[in-house]
Amino acid sequence: MKSEVESRGPTSALELLRGVFGYDEFRGQQEAIIARLAEGGDALVLMPTGGGKSLCYQIPSMLRPGVGIVVSPLIALMQDQVDSLRLLGVEAAYLNSTLDRQEAGRVESALVAGELDLLYVAPERLLTPRFLELLDRSPLALFAIDEAHCVSQWGHDFRPEYLSLSLLAERFPAVPRIALTATADAVTRREMAQKLRLEEARWYVASFDRPNIRYTVVEKQNARRQLLSFYREKHEGNAGIVYCMSRRSVDETAAWLREQGVSALPYHAGLDAARRARHQEAFLREDGVVVVATIAFGMGIDKPDVRFVAHLDVPKSLEGYYQETGRAGRDGEAADAFMTYGLTDVVALRRLLSRSDTDDAHRRVEQQKLEALLGYCESAGCRRQALLAYFGEELLGPCGNCDTCLNPVDTYDGTVEVQKLLSTVFRTGQRFGAGYLIDILTGRSTPRVKQLGHDRLSTFGIGADLAAPSWRRVVRQSTAAGFLTTDEDGYGSLKLTGASAAVLRGERKVALRRDPQPAPGVAGRRPANDRRALRPSGPEGELFEELRRLRSELARTQGVPPYVIFHDSTLREMAERKPRNEVELANVSGVGQKKLERYGQAFLAAISVFLV
Fold first, then answer.
1. CA 488 to CA 347: how far, in whole Å?
2. Nearest to 330 by CA among 538, 2, 51
3. Residue 281: in which H helix or E strand, if any?
4. I need a labelling partner for 29 at 20 to 30 A (CA). Which of 93, 448, 484, 541 fits?
5. What is the mean pLDDT of residues 442-462?
6. Which pTM value belongs to this model?
7. Which helix H or strand E contains 574, and what residues bound it?
Protein backbone atom coordinates (compact mmCIF):
# COMPACT_ATOMS: atom_id res chain seq x y z
CA MET A 1 0.00 0.00 0.00
CA LYS A 2 1.25 3.50 -0.79
CA SER A 3 2.02 5.93 2.01
CA GLU A 4 -0.73 6.72 4.50
CA VAL A 5 -0.77 10.38 3.49
CA GLU A 6 -1.51 9.49 -0.13
CA SER A 7 -4.01 6.78 0.77
CA ARG A 8 -6.21 9.44 2.37
CA GLY A 9 -6.56 11.11 -1.01
CA PRO A 10 -5.00 14.09 -2.82
CA THR A 11 -3.08 16.53 -0.65
CA SER A 12 -0.79 19.49 -1.24
CA ALA A 13 2.96 19.57 -1.49
CA LEU A 14 3.17 21.83 1.55
CA GLU A 15 1.03 19.43 3.62
CA LEU A 16 3.39 16.59 2.70
CA LEU A 17 6.41 18.73 3.55
CA ARG A 18 5.01 19.54 7.00
CA GLY A 19 3.24 16.31 7.87
CA VAL A 20 5.75 13.79 6.49
CA PHE A 21 9.12 15.56 6.45
CA GLY A 22 8.58 17.93 9.37
CA TYR A 23 9.60 21.20 7.68
CA ASP A 24 7.52 24.39 7.61
CA GLU A 25 8.55 25.83 4.25
CA PHE A 26 10.30 24.99 1.01
CA ARG A 27 13.75 26.26 0.16
CA GLY A 28 14.71 28.10 -3.00
CA GLN A 29 13.12 26.64 -6.12
CA GLN A 30 11.88 23.39 -4.53
CA GLU A 31 8.22 24.38 -4.64
CA ALA A 32 8.35 25.43 -8.32
CA ILE A 33 10.14 22.21 -9.33
CA ILE A 34 7.64 20.06 -7.44
CA ALA A 35 4.73 21.86 -9.09
CA ARG A 36 6.29 21.33 -12.52
CA LEU A 37 6.67 17.57 -11.97
CA ALA A 38 3.27 17.20 -10.31
CA GLU A 39 1.65 18.79 -13.37
CA GLY A 40 3.45 16.34 -15.69
CA GLY A 41 6.26 18.55 -16.98
CA ASP A 42 9.96 17.72 -17.33
CA ALA A 43 12.72 19.47 -15.39
CA LEU A 44 16.50 19.81 -15.31
CA VAL A 45 17.73 20.74 -11.85
CA LEU A 46 21.15 22.03 -10.84
CA MET A 47 21.24 22.41 -7.10
CA PRO A 48 24.22 22.21 -4.72
CA THR A 49 24.76 19.23 -2.46
CA GLY A 50 22.64 19.72 0.64
CA GLY A 51 20.22 21.97 -1.24
CA GLY A 52 17.30 19.53 -0.99
CA LYS A 53 17.28 17.90 -4.44
CA SER A 54 15.65 14.67 -3.21
CA LEU A 55 12.44 16.42 -2.10
CA CYS A 56 12.05 17.68 -5.67
CA TYR A 57 11.16 14.17 -6.86
CA GLN A 58 10.04 12.50 -3.61
CA ILE A 59 7.05 14.77 -3.04
CA PRO A 60 5.79 14.66 -6.68
CA SER A 61 6.04 10.87 -6.55
CA MET A 62 3.71 10.93 -3.55
CA LEU A 63 1.35 13.46 -5.13
CA ARG A 64 1.00 11.73 -8.50
CA PRO A 65 -0.66 8.34 -9.00
CA GLY A 66 1.81 5.54 -9.59
CA VAL A 67 5.40 4.87 -8.56
CA GLY A 68 8.32 7.27 -8.84
CA ILE A 69 11.35 5.50 -10.36
CA VAL A 70 14.63 6.96 -9.12
CA VAL A 71 17.73 6.13 -11.15
CA SER A 72 20.61 6.15 -8.67
CA PRO A 73 24.21 5.11 -9.38
CA LEU A 74 25.18 3.73 -5.98
CA ILE A 75 23.81 1.05 -3.68
CA ALA A 76 24.74 3.01 -0.56
CA LEU A 77 22.65 5.99 -1.62
CA MET A 78 19.64 3.82 -2.40
CA GLN A 79 19.73 2.12 0.97
CA ASP A 80 20.26 5.38 2.83
CA GLN A 81 17.37 7.14 1.11
CA VAL A 82 15.02 4.20 1.54
CA ASP A 83 15.87 3.84 5.25
CA SER A 84 15.10 7.53 5.75
CA LEU A 85 11.83 7.42 3.80
CA ARG A 86 10.52 4.32 5.56
CA LEU A 87 11.03 5.97 8.94
CA LEU A 88 8.85 8.81 7.65
CA GLY A 89 6.07 6.39 6.71
CA VAL A 90 6.77 6.59 2.97
CA GLU A 91 6.47 3.38 0.96
CA ALA A 92 9.93 3.19 -0.59
CA ALA A 93 12.07 0.30 -1.80
CA TYR A 94 15.14 -0.45 -3.89
CA LEU A 95 16.19 -3.16 -6.30
CA ASN A 96 19.87 -4.01 -6.31
CA SER A 97 22.29 -6.89 -5.91
CA THR A 98 21.98 -6.93 -2.10
CA LEU A 99 18.48 -8.46 -2.31
CA ASP A 100 17.96 -12.19 -2.68
CA ARG A 101 15.55 -13.50 -5.30
CA GLN A 102 12.61 -13.72 -2.91
CA GLU A 103 13.06 -10.16 -1.62
CA ALA A 104 13.48 -8.82 -5.15
CA GLY A 105 10.30 -10.65 -6.20
CA ARG A 106 8.31 -8.96 -3.44
CA VAL A 107 9.56 -5.53 -4.52
CA GLU A 108 8.73 -6.24 -8.16
CA SER A 109 5.21 -7.32 -7.22
CA ALA A 110 4.71 -4.12 -5.21
CA LEU A 111 5.93 -2.11 -8.21
CA VAL A 112 3.47 -3.66 -10.64
CA ALA A 113 0.64 -3.34 -8.12
CA GLY A 114 1.38 0.35 -7.59
CA GLU A 115 1.93 -0.13 -3.86
CA LEU A 116 5.09 1.96 -3.71
CA ASP A 117 5.69 5.70 -3.62
CA LEU A 118 9.30 5.40 -4.78
CA LEU A 119 11.55 2.69 -6.18
CA TYR A 120 15.33 3.20 -6.42
CA VAL A 121 17.18 1.32 -9.13
CA ALA A 122 20.63 1.44 -10.74
CA PRO A 123 20.80 2.44 -14.43
CA GLU A 124 22.26 -0.96 -15.35
CA ARG A 125 19.23 -2.77 -13.97
CA LEU A 126 16.72 -0.30 -15.36
CA LEU A 127 18.03 -0.86 -18.89
CA THR A 128 17.58 -4.64 -18.84
CA PRO A 129 14.74 -6.00 -21.03
CA ARG A 130 13.18 -7.74 -18.02
CA PHE A 131 12.96 -4.57 -15.93
CA LEU A 132 11.68 -2.48 -18.82
CA GLU A 133 8.93 -5.06 -19.30
CA LEU A 134 8.06 -4.67 -15.60
CA LEU A 135 7.82 -0.92 -16.08
CA ASP A 136 5.49 -1.44 -19.04
CA ARG A 137 3.06 -3.19 -16.66
CA SER A 138 3.43 -0.71 -13.78
CA PRO A 139 1.69 2.59 -12.99
CA LEU A 140 4.43 5.22 -13.21
CA ALA A 141 4.42 8.63 -11.51
CA LEU A 142 7.74 9.93 -12.85
CA PHE A 143 11.37 9.14 -13.61
CA ALA A 144 14.09 10.88 -11.58
CA ILE A 145 17.66 10.62 -12.91
CA ASP A 146 20.00 11.46 -10.03
CA GLU A 147 23.68 12.39 -10.51
CA ALA A 148 22.78 13.26 -14.10
CA HIS A 149 26.24 14.72 -14.77
CA CYS A 150 27.37 11.09 -15.18
CA VAL A 151 26.07 11.34 -18.75
CA SER A 152 28.94 13.66 -19.71
CA GLN A 153 31.82 12.00 -21.54
CA TRP A 154 33.92 15.05 -20.64
CA GLY A 155 33.14 14.74 -16.96
CA HIS A 156 34.91 13.28 -13.94
CA ASP A 157 32.15 10.75 -13.15
CA PHE A 158 31.23 9.52 -16.64
CA ARG A 159 29.19 6.29 -16.66
CA PRO A 160 28.45 4.88 -20.13
CA GLU A 161 25.11 3.36 -19.12
CA TYR A 162 23.72 6.86 -18.49
CA LEU A 163 23.87 7.49 -22.24
CA SER A 164 21.16 4.86 -22.79
CA LEU A 165 18.69 6.54 -20.42
CA SER A 166 17.41 8.52 -23.40
CA LEU A 167 15.19 5.51 -24.15
CA LEU A 168 12.91 6.58 -21.28
CA ALA A 169 11.72 9.48 -23.43
CA GLU A 170 10.98 7.14 -26.32
CA ARG A 171 9.39 4.28 -24.39
CA PHE A 172 7.45 6.29 -21.77
CA PRO A 173 6.72 9.67 -23.44
CA ALA A 174 3.79 10.47 -21.12
CA VAL A 175 5.78 10.01 -17.89
CA PRO A 176 7.45 13.21 -16.61
CA ARG A 177 11.22 13.12 -16.09
CA ILE A 178 13.56 15.10 -13.89
CA ALA A 179 17.37 15.05 -14.12
CA LEU A 180 19.32 16.36 -11.14
CA THR A 181 22.95 17.12 -10.35
CA ALA A 182 25.04 19.26 -8.04
CA THR A 183 27.89 19.70 -10.53
CA ALA A 184 27.75 20.80 -14.15
CA ASP A 185 29.64 23.38 -16.15
CA ALA A 186 28.20 24.78 -19.39
CA VAL A 187 29.44 21.86 -21.52
CA THR A 188 27.98 19.26 -19.14
CA ARG A 189 24.63 21.05 -18.97
CA ARG A 190 24.28 20.92 -22.75
CA GLU A 191 25.17 17.23 -22.75
CA MET A 192 22.59 16.47 -20.06
CA ALA A 193 19.79 18.11 -22.02
CA GLN A 194 20.80 16.55 -25.34
CA LYS A 195 21.70 13.01 -24.33
CA LEU A 196 18.83 12.53 -21.90
CA ARG A 197 16.33 13.91 -24.47
CA LEU A 198 15.36 16.76 -22.16
CA GLU A 199 15.70 19.61 -24.67
CA GLU A 200 12.19 20.83 -23.82
CA ALA A 201 12.62 20.51 -20.07
CA ARG A 202 12.38 23.57 -17.86
CA TRP A 203 15.70 24.50 -16.26
CA TYR A 204 16.06 25.25 -12.55
CA VAL A 205 19.55 26.43 -11.67
CA ALA A 206 20.15 27.29 -8.03
CA SER A 207 23.20 29.07 -6.72
CA PHE A 208 26.26 26.85 -6.53
CA ASP A 209 27.40 28.67 -3.43
CA ARG A 210 27.86 26.68 -0.24
CA PRO A 211 28.46 29.55 2.20
CA ASN A 212 28.81 27.18 5.16
CA ILE A 213 31.98 25.62 3.67
CA ARG A 214 35.31 27.32 4.35
CA TYR A 215 37.79 26.75 1.51
CA THR A 216 41.48 26.52 2.38
CA VAL A 217 44.46 25.64 0.16
CA VAL A 218 47.91 25.40 1.77
CA GLU A 219 51.34 24.88 0.31
CA LYS A 220 52.19 21.19 0.61
CA GLN A 221 55.11 20.59 2.96
CA ASN A 222 54.29 17.48 4.97
CA ALA A 223 50.73 16.74 3.89
CA ARG A 224 49.91 14.20 6.58
CA ARG A 225 51.26 16.37 9.37
CA GLN A 226 49.40 19.34 7.96
CA LEU A 227 46.20 17.29 7.86
CA LEU A 228 46.65 16.09 11.43
CA SER A 229 47.25 19.64 12.67
CA PHE A 230 44.12 20.83 10.85
CA TYR A 231 42.09 17.92 12.24
CA ARG A 232 43.19 18.39 15.85
CA GLU A 233 42.75 22.13 15.76
CA LYS A 234 39.28 22.18 14.26
CA HIS A 235 37.63 18.79 13.83
CA GLU A 236 38.81 16.25 16.37
CA GLY A 237 36.08 13.65 16.82
CA ASN A 238 34.25 14.74 13.66
CA ALA A 239 33.37 12.67 10.62
CA GLY A 240 35.42 13.56 7.56
CA ILE A 241 36.70 12.37 4.18
CA VAL A 242 40.35 12.54 3.11
CA TYR A 243 41.09 12.12 -0.61
CA CYS A 244 44.41 10.83 -1.93
CA MET A 245 45.46 10.20 -5.53
CA SER A 246 46.71 6.60 -5.21
CA ARG A 247 45.57 3.45 -3.42
CA ARG A 248 48.96 3.11 -1.77
CA SER A 249 48.71 6.63 -0.38
CA VAL A 250 45.21 5.86 0.91
CA ASP A 251 46.38 2.76 2.79
CA GLU A 252 49.48 4.44 4.23
CA THR A 253 47.63 7.60 5.26
CA ALA A 254 44.82 5.69 6.96
CA ALA A 255 47.32 3.53 8.86
CA TRP A 256 49.33 6.59 9.91
CA LEU A 257 46.23 8.42 11.13
CA ARG A 258 45.22 5.40 13.21
CA GLU A 259 48.68 5.47 14.81
CA GLN A 260 47.95 9.08 15.77
CA GLY A 261 44.70 8.07 17.46
CA VAL A 262 42.29 9.00 14.65
CA SER A 263 39.44 6.60 13.83
CA ALA A 264 40.45 6.28 10.15
CA LEU A 265 39.51 3.65 7.56
CA PRO A 266 40.76 3.20 3.97
CA TYR A 267 38.46 2.92 0.95
CA HIS A 268 39.47 2.25 -2.66
CA ALA A 269 38.70 -0.12 -5.52
CA GLY A 270 41.64 -2.38 -4.62
CA LEU A 271 39.95 -3.53 -1.40
CA ASP A 272 37.59 -6.49 -1.57
CA ALA A 273 33.90 -5.65 -1.74
CA ALA A 274 33.13 -6.92 1.77
CA ARG A 275 35.79 -4.72 3.35
CA ARG A 276 34.67 -1.66 1.38
CA ALA A 277 31.10 -2.29 2.52
CA ARG A 278 32.17 -2.59 6.18
CA HIS A 279 34.14 0.63 6.05
CA GLN A 280 31.35 2.53 4.36
CA GLU A 281 28.85 1.17 6.86
CA ALA A 282 31.06 2.30 9.76
CA PHE A 283 31.36 5.76 8.26
CA LEU A 284 27.58 6.08 7.86
CA ARG A 285 26.51 4.57 11.17
CA GLU A 286 29.21 5.54 13.65
CA ASP A 287 30.13 8.99 14.87
CA GLY A 288 33.55 10.49 14.23
CA VAL A 289 34.86 8.09 11.54
CA VAL A 290 37.31 9.49 8.98
CA VAL A 291 37.46 7.71 5.61
CA VAL A 292 40.66 8.01 3.60
CA ALA A 293 39.81 7.30 -0.01
CA THR A 294 40.39 7.64 -3.70
CA ILE A 295 37.56 9.19 -5.69
CA ALA A 296 35.97 5.71 -5.69
CA PHE A 297 34.30 6.85 -2.46
CA GLY A 298 31.68 9.48 -1.96
CA MET A 299 29.25 9.93 -4.84
CA GLY A 300 25.76 9.64 -3.45
CA ILE A 301 26.86 9.56 0.19
CA ASP A 302 23.94 11.16 2.03
CA LYS A 303 25.60 11.61 5.43
CA PRO A 304 24.70 15.16 6.52
CA ASP A 305 27.23 15.68 9.33
CA VAL A 306 30.52 15.33 7.45
CA ARG A 307 32.39 18.26 8.96
CA PHE A 308 35.39 18.32 6.63
CA VAL A 309 36.71 17.09 3.30
CA ALA A 310 40.48 17.17 2.83
CA HIS A 311 42.51 16.66 -0.34
CA LEU A 312 46.11 15.60 0.22
CA ASP A 313 46.56 15.62 -3.57
CA VAL A 314 44.78 17.99 -5.90
CA PRO A 315 41.85 16.57 -7.92
CA LYS A 316 41.84 16.61 -11.72
CA SER A 317 39.25 19.34 -12.21
CA LEU A 318 37.20 21.98 -10.44
CA GLU A 319 34.08 19.90 -11.10
CA GLY A 320 35.65 17.02 -9.19
CA TYR A 321 36.80 19.35 -6.43
CA TYR A 322 33.38 20.96 -6.08
CA GLN A 323 31.62 17.59 -6.09
CA GLU A 324 33.96 16.12 -3.49
CA THR A 325 34.08 19.13 -1.16
CA GLY A 326 30.30 19.33 -1.40
CA ARG A 327 30.07 16.16 0.69
CA ALA A 328 30.93 18.31 3.70
CA GLY A 329 28.26 20.19 5.61
CA ARG A 330 25.18 18.85 3.87
CA ASP A 331 23.24 19.79 7.01
CA GLY A 332 24.06 23.46 6.45
CA GLU A 333 26.31 23.68 9.50
CA ALA A 334 29.86 25.03 9.30
CA ALA A 335 32.28 22.72 7.47
CA ASP A 336 35.76 22.81 5.92
CA ALA A 337 37.31 22.03 2.56
CA PHE A 338 41.06 21.69 3.13
CA MET A 339 43.65 20.99 0.41
CA THR A 340 47.43 20.68 0.31
CA TYR A 341 48.92 21.68 -3.02
CA GLY A 342 52.45 21.69 -4.38
CA LEU A 343 54.63 21.47 -7.43
CA THR A 344 54.58 17.67 -7.37
CA ASP A 345 50.80 17.82 -7.89
CA VAL A 346 51.21 20.06 -10.92
CA VAL A 347 53.86 17.77 -12.39
CA ALA A 348 51.81 14.61 -11.76
CA LEU A 349 48.62 16.00 -13.29
CA ARG A 350 50.37 17.35 -16.37
CA ARG A 351 52.15 14.02 -16.86
CA LEU A 352 48.87 12.10 -16.62
CA LEU A 353 47.31 14.41 -19.17
CA SER A 354 50.24 14.15 -21.59
CA ARG A 355 50.15 10.35 -21.42
CA SER A 356 46.39 10.15 -21.91
CA ASP A 357 45.34 8.06 -24.92
CA THR A 358 42.22 10.15 -25.54
CA ASP A 359 41.68 12.09 -28.75
CA ASP A 360 42.89 15.66 -29.24
CA ALA A 361 39.49 17.24 -28.60
CA HIS A 362 39.11 15.44 -25.29
CA ARG A 363 42.67 16.29 -24.30
CA ARG A 364 42.04 19.98 -24.99
CA VAL A 365 38.98 19.94 -22.74
CA GLU A 366 40.96 18.21 -19.99
CA GLN A 367 43.77 20.75 -20.42
CA GLN A 368 41.30 23.61 -19.94
CA LYS A 369 39.89 21.95 -16.83
CA LEU A 370 43.38 21.49 -15.40
CA GLU A 371 44.31 25.12 -16.07
CA ALA A 372 41.14 26.26 -14.27
CA LEU A 373 41.99 24.08 -11.27
CA LEU A 374 45.57 25.35 -11.06
CA GLY A 375 44.32 28.91 -11.39
CA TYR A 376 42.01 28.31 -8.43
CA CYS A 377 44.86 26.94 -6.32
CA GLU A 378 47.11 29.90 -7.14
CA SER A 379 44.38 32.53 -6.80
CA ALA A 380 45.27 35.59 -4.75
CA GLY A 381 41.61 36.61 -4.61
CA CYS A 382 38.54 35.13 -2.96
CA ARG A 383 38.42 31.39 -3.62
CA ARG A 384 34.63 31.28 -3.54
CA GLN A 385 34.44 33.95 -6.22
CA ALA A 386 36.87 31.95 -8.39
CA LEU A 387 34.99 28.68 -7.84
CA LEU A 388 31.56 30.15 -8.58
CA ALA A 389 32.86 32.01 -11.64
CA TYR A 390 33.88 28.67 -13.13
CA PHE A 391 30.24 27.59 -13.01
CA GLY A 392 29.07 30.85 -14.54
CA GLU A 393 27.95 32.50 -11.31
CA GLU A 394 29.10 35.88 -10.03
CA LEU A 395 29.66 36.58 -6.35
CA LEU A 396 29.64 40.35 -6.08
CA GLY A 397 32.03 40.64 -3.14
CA PRO A 398 34.65 38.55 -1.32
CA CYS A 399 33.03 35.81 0.77
CA GLY A 400 34.89 36.35 4.05
CA ASN A 401 34.97 32.59 4.64
CA CYS A 402 37.99 31.30 2.73
CA ASP A 403 41.69 31.38 3.47
CA THR A 404 42.48 34.22 1.10
CA CYS A 405 39.74 36.38 2.61
CA LEU A 406 40.73 35.60 6.21
CA ASN A 407 44.48 35.79 5.48
CA PRO A 408 44.84 38.18 2.52
CA VAL A 409 47.37 37.37 -0.18
CA ASP A 410 49.45 40.11 -1.78
CA THR A 411 50.90 39.92 -5.26
CA TYR A 412 54.07 41.48 -6.58
CA ASP A 413 55.78 41.89 -9.92
CA GLY A 414 57.70 38.62 -10.21
CA THR A 415 58.69 39.05 -13.84
CA VAL A 416 62.44 39.14 -13.09
CA GLU A 417 62.32 36.01 -10.92
CA VAL A 418 60.39 34.12 -13.59
CA GLN A 419 62.83 35.29 -16.27
CA LYS A 420 65.74 33.99 -14.18
CA LEU A 421 64.00 30.64 -13.80
CA LEU A 422 63.07 30.30 -17.49
CA SER A 423 66.57 31.27 -18.55
CA THR A 424 68.04 28.59 -16.27
CA VAL A 425 65.69 25.99 -17.72
CA PHE A 426 66.80 26.95 -21.24
CA ARG A 427 70.54 27.05 -20.45
CA THR A 428 70.46 23.59 -18.83
CA GLY A 429 68.84 22.02 -21.89
CA GLN A 430 65.34 21.63 -20.47
CA ARG A 431 66.36 18.29 -18.96
CA PHE A 432 66.16 18.86 -15.18
CA GLY A 433 63.61 19.02 -12.40
CA ALA A 434 62.85 21.80 -9.95
CA GLY A 435 65.31 20.77 -7.23
CA TYR A 436 68.34 20.83 -9.54
CA LEU A 437 67.31 24.14 -11.13
CA ILE A 438 66.96 25.72 -7.69
CA ASP A 439 70.47 24.52 -6.77
CA ILE A 440 71.80 26.46 -9.77
CA LEU A 441 69.71 29.56 -9.09
CA THR A 442 70.79 29.71 -5.44
CA GLY A 443 74.45 28.96 -6.27
CA ARG A 444 74.76 25.56 -4.60
CA SER A 445 77.90 23.83 -5.94
CA THR A 446 76.70 20.27 -5.56
CA PRO A 447 78.82 17.44 -7.01
CA ARG A 448 76.27 16.98 -9.80
CA VAL A 449 76.24 20.68 -10.65
CA LYS A 450 80.04 20.69 -10.84
CA GLN A 451 80.19 17.47 -12.82
CA LEU A 452 77.89 18.88 -15.50
CA GLY A 453 79.67 22.22 -15.52
CA HIS A 454 76.54 24.17 -14.64
CA ASP A 455 78.39 26.14 -11.99
CA ARG A 456 79.87 28.09 -14.91
CA LEU A 457 76.48 29.16 -16.31
CA SER A 458 75.61 32.85 -16.31
CA THR A 459 72.52 32.02 -14.23
CA PHE A 460 74.49 30.19 -11.53
CA GLY A 461 73.76 31.99 -8.25
CA ILE A 462 71.66 34.63 -9.97
CA GLY A 463 68.82 33.91 -7.56
CA ALA A 464 70.82 33.75 -4.34
CA ASP A 465 68.70 36.56 -2.90
CA LEU A 466 65.80 34.10 -2.51
CA ALA A 467 65.79 30.98 -0.33
CA ALA A 468 64.98 27.58 -1.83
CA PRO A 469 61.38 27.50 -0.47
CA SER A 470 60.68 30.84 -2.19
CA TRP A 471 62.09 29.52 -5.47
CA ARG A 472 59.84 26.45 -5.17
CA ARG A 473 56.86 28.81 -5.07
CA VAL A 474 58.14 30.62 -8.18
CA VAL A 475 58.53 27.28 -10.00
CA ARG A 476 55.08 26.11 -8.94
CA GLN A 477 53.34 29.32 -9.94
CA SER A 478 55.23 29.48 -13.26
CA THR A 479 54.16 25.92 -14.04
CA ALA A 480 50.56 26.59 -13.02
CA ALA A 481 50.54 29.72 -15.20
CA GLY A 482 51.68 27.71 -18.23
CA PHE A 483 55.19 29.17 -18.65
CA LEU A 484 56.66 25.73 -17.90
CA THR A 485 55.48 22.22 -18.55
CA THR A 486 56.78 18.80 -17.55
CA ASP A 487 58.45 16.23 -19.73
CA GLU A 488 57.18 12.65 -20.03
CA ASP A 489 60.49 11.24 -18.78
CA GLY A 490 59.03 10.33 -15.39
CA TYR A 491 61.48 12.63 -13.58
CA GLY A 492 59.51 15.86 -13.76
CA SER A 493 61.96 17.62 -16.08
CA LEU A 494 60.77 21.15 -16.76
CA LYS A 495 60.49 22.52 -20.31
CA LEU A 496 59.63 25.90 -21.77
CA THR A 497 56.26 26.47 -23.43
CA GLY A 498 55.02 28.76 -26.17
CA ALA A 499 54.14 31.34 -23.51
CA SER A 500 57.70 31.48 -22.19
CA ALA A 501 59.17 33.62 -24.97
CA ALA A 502 57.07 36.72 -24.23
CA VAL A 503 58.18 36.62 -20.59
CA LEU A 504 61.85 36.16 -21.48
CA ARG A 505 61.68 39.09 -23.93
CA GLY A 506 60.05 41.31 -21.29
CA GLU A 507 56.85 41.63 -23.32
CA ARG A 508 54.71 40.08 -20.60
CA LYS A 509 54.62 40.94 -16.90
CA VAL A 510 54.06 38.20 -14.31
CA ALA A 511 52.33 38.74 -10.97
CA LEU A 512 53.24 36.25 -8.24
CA ARG A 513 51.68 35.54 -4.85
CA ARG A 514 53.41 36.43 -1.64
CA ASP A 515 53.01 34.30 1.45
CA PRO A 516 49.64 35.06 3.06
CA GLN A 517 49.60 37.29 6.15
CA PRO A 518 46.97 37.01 8.90
CA ALA A 519 44.30 39.66 8.59
CA PRO A 520 43.99 42.09 11.52
CA GLY A 521 41.92 40.56 14.28
CA VAL A 522 41.93 37.08 12.74
CA ALA A 523 44.95 35.55 14.48
CA GLY A 524 44.01 33.65 17.60
CA ARG A 525 40.29 33.78 16.92
CA ARG A 526 38.48 30.48 17.24
CA PRO A 527 37.31 29.48 13.75
CA ALA A 528 33.57 29.56 13.17
CA ASN A 529 34.00 26.06 11.72
CA ASP A 530 35.28 24.67 15.02
CA ARG A 531 32.94 21.87 16.12
CA ARG A 532 32.89 23.40 19.59
CA ALA A 533 31.00 26.35 18.09
CA LEU A 534 28.29 23.92 16.90
CA ARG A 535 27.72 22.47 20.36
CA PRO A 536 25.35 24.41 22.65
CA SER A 537 26.99 25.56 25.86
CA GLY A 538 26.02 24.90 29.46
CA PRO A 539 22.99 22.72 30.27
CA GLU A 540 21.82 22.88 26.65
CA GLY A 541 25.15 21.33 25.63
CA GLU A 542 24.73 18.51 28.12
CA LEU A 543 21.19 17.85 26.88
CA PHE A 544 22.38 17.94 23.28
CA GLU A 545 24.96 15.24 23.99
CA GLU A 546 22.36 13.16 25.84
CA LEU A 547 20.03 13.38 22.84
CA ARG A 548 22.89 12.32 20.56
CA ARG A 549 23.53 9.33 22.84
CA LEU A 550 19.84 8.36 22.75
CA ARG A 551 19.79 8.72 18.97
CA SER A 552 22.82 6.42 18.65
CA GLU A 553 21.16 3.76 20.80
CA LEU A 554 17.97 3.87 18.75
CA ALA A 555 19.97 3.75 15.51
CA ARG A 556 21.91 0.66 16.61
CA THR A 557 18.71 -1.07 17.62
CA GLN A 558 17.04 -0.36 14.29
CA GLY A 559 20.11 -0.87 12.11
CA VAL A 560 20.08 2.60 10.53
CA PRO A 561 22.52 5.53 10.54
CA PRO A 562 21.90 7.97 13.44
CA TYR A 563 21.16 10.92 11.14
CA VAL A 564 18.27 8.98 9.59
CA ILE A 565 16.46 9.38 12.91
CA PHE A 566 17.20 13.10 13.44
CA HIS A 567 19.86 15.48 12.17
CA ASP A 568 22.12 17.26 14.64
CA SER A 569 20.33 20.52 13.84
CA THR A 570 17.04 18.97 15.01
CA LEU A 571 18.62 17.74 18.25
CA ARG A 572 20.18 21.16 18.82
CA GLU A 573 16.79 22.81 18.44
CA MET A 574 15.31 20.30 20.90
CA ALA A 575 18.06 21.11 23.40
CA GLU A 576 17.48 24.84 23.07
CA ARG A 577 13.65 24.81 23.08
CA LYS A 578 13.16 21.89 25.52
CA PRO A 579 9.67 20.86 24.34
CA ARG A 580 7.48 19.50 27.15
CA ASN A 581 4.89 17.60 25.10
CA GLU A 582 4.22 16.21 21.65
CA VAL A 583 2.56 19.40 20.44
CA GLU A 584 5.70 21.42 21.21
CA LEU A 585 7.98 18.68 19.87
CA ALA A 586 6.05 18.63 16.58
CA ASN A 587 7.04 22.27 16.05
CA VAL A 588 10.75 21.40 16.01
CA SER A 589 12.14 21.45 12.46
CA GLY A 590 12.65 17.91 11.14
CA VAL A 591 10.04 16.22 13.35
CA GLY A 592 7.33 14.83 11.06
CA GLN A 593 4.24 12.94 12.14
CA LYS A 594 5.69 9.43 11.82
CA LYS A 595 8.86 10.31 13.68
CA LEU A 596 6.80 12.00 16.36
CA GLU A 597 4.80 8.80 16.82
CA ARG A 598 7.88 6.58 16.71
CA TYR A 599 10.37 8.57 18.78
CA GLY A 600 8.46 11.35 20.51
CA GLN A 601 8.08 9.77 23.95
CA ALA A 602 11.70 8.62 24.15
CA PHE A 603 13.08 12.07 23.37
CA LEU A 604 10.56 13.86 25.58
CA ALA A 605 11.59 11.59 28.46
CA ALA A 606 15.26 12.47 27.93
CA ILE A 607 14.42 16.18 27.79
CA SER A 608 12.26 16.04 30.93
CA VAL A 609 15.31 15.23 33.08
CA PHE A 610 16.78 18.62 32.15
CA LEU A 611 13.63 20.67 32.77
CA VAL A 612 13.72 23.04 35.73
1. 10
2. 51
3. helix 273-285
4. 93
5. 94
6. 0.74
7. helix 568-577
